[in-house]
Amino acid sequence: MRALRFLPALLFVALGFQAHAQYPTKPVKLIVPYAAGGTTDVLARIVADKLTQSLGQQVVIEYKPGAGGTIGADAAAKSPPDGYTIVMGAPGSHSTAPSLYAKLPFDPVKDFAPIVHVANVPNSIIVHPTLPVKSVPELIAYAKANPGRLTYGSAGTGATTHLTGELFALMADVKLTHIPYKGSSQAMIDLLGGQIQMMFENLPGAASQIRSSKVRGLAVTSLRRSPAFPDLPAVSETLPGFEVVAWFALFAPAGTPPAIVARLNAESDRALKLADVREKIAQAGSDPIGGTPEDLAKFLAADIAKWARVTREAGIKPQ
Q1: 257 and 116: one domain?
Q2: What does the pLDDT look like over 76-127, one tens digit per residue?
Q3: Is residue 105 part of a domain?
Q4: pLDDT by residue (tens digit) across 228-284?
Q5: Could you tell me if residue 161 is inside a domain?
Q6: Which run of H or E residues covers position 49?
Q7: Which residues of 39-49 are buried (b: 16+ CB within 10 A; e: fewer)?
Q8: How far apart are CA 230 and CA 245, in angstroms?
Q9: Given 237, 269, 300, which residue is the final one in a domain?
């Protein structure tokens, strides 16, 4: 009789394991918390295509842009933790948000289960061709001689294209003037027109302008040089330890069964090792990463701490 009392619980556990083993049995929604056409979208489509093949169910992209990625991230955080909603997170939605929003409606750590670190994208330092500098040391010297006169545009206050400039100013001990725009494309138009003098733009977004010499590329913000632009030095060659990458990673809502997270990680990580996937990601100006959920959790914690320090030292107040 005593053993019989445990049968319902054992049956429930057994059915749970069976359900996880059968996952997925319906399409999986992948939220992209930014507008279509950007790097987040490109990478999400590459990953979704391979997951659709390996999972045997369609992985459907759903766009929920706005508020620096936090609207889509919030929707993902509040979705049922069953593995049928995941999100492509980025710095704006996960690592800078805690320092920029006084009332963030979710916790980037507690409300998500990390799946896999998909890719990193370095920023680049680009200047208008009329600016009399051709290297990072020359840029720093010019900024020191002209405090506050150098203007740089960004995709908006709190974007990595803004915070990269703040970190550069802190580490180089210079004063720059930030001009926020509603998107990098508008800032690029003004840079090309000479209304602003420089940008810390994502490398994929700056690549064509650098190659056409419409802007002058000075450096990349990854720790090492980019294979796509081997002649561009890393900022770290002048400012040791300087590193900024726009990262992209998959997350599920917190509470998603570990077996499902493990399945999603295994399939995603396997895809990120495939030659055709790595080539597509490289063509998007990105570096494929991969790894375990634990690797992603450690990376996210370090990135949150990094930008908390930068925003605090730059005097940026949460809104």
Answers
A1: yes
A2: 999 999 999 999 999 989 999 999 998 999 999 999 999 999 999 999 999 9
A3: yes
A4: 889 999 999 999 999 999 899 999 999 999 999 999 999 999 999 999 999 999 887
A5: yes
A6: helix 39-55
A7: bbbbbbbbbbe
A8: 17
A9: 237
Task: Judge if pTM exceeds 0.90.
Answer: no
Structurally, the chain folds into a number of domains equal to 2
Query: If we measure between CA atoms, which residue out of 202, 102, 209 comes closest to residue 160?
Result: 202
Structural domain boundaries enclosing 184: 122-237
Tell me, yes or no, whether 1 lies in a domain.
no
SS3 183: coil
DSSP 54-92: HHSS-EEEEE---GGGHHHHHHHHTS-SSSSEEEEE-II
Helix or strand (DSSP H, E) at 281: helix 275-283
- Those residues whose C-beta lies under 8 Å from the C-beta of residue 116, and which sit 6 or more positions away, are 249, 250, 264, 265, 268, 269, 272, 290, 291, 292, 293, 296
94 in the same domain as 43 = yes
Q: Which contiguous run of DSSP H or E holds residue 269? A: helix 258-272
The two three-digit tokens of residue 81, written as one number? 């933790």
